[in-house]
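Quick one:
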Amino acid sequence: MRTLSNVRVRNVATVGGALAHADPHMDLPPLFSALGARATITGPDGERTVPVEALYAGYLENTLKRDELITRISIPSMGERRAAYLKCTTRSADDWPAVGIAVLIGAGEVRAVLGAATDRPTRLVAAEKELQGKIDDAKALARAAEAAAEEAQIESDQHGSAAYKKQLIRVYLRRAIDEARRATR
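Output:
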């Protein structure tokens, strides 16, 4: 968590506020989405709970109604599962990423979520299907990396072109899976 923002932000920001901001370059939304986190939202009509990924409607657009606040984030226990989040920045570790990828593996489950390269956290479903039951298969990992790069609508911005980000996705999905696998041993 120390690399996900600079010290000034960490000392005044809230997790709920960061999620509500809906900036696709934020680090927590893809990570929380991969972990299966849920947000409790409170407003004039009471409370509701949604998966974190359901908070996003598009670039800097959230799904909160007027006068609603995120009051709680619930993250399921990891158990035997392992996760990793890696990002590629052009400057310091607390800079906005060109690409961020979060993965969760274990207990017959593979989840991969892309951030920064799209207008909202994006689940990499085709890549997940390639990896189901084959997390240690190098060929399956190569197919998953290619699927990940092709399945998402990539946004060009000041952090890189869509083509550059697609290549980063290929590389960083593999690295994130390797990082999560190492955590299981």
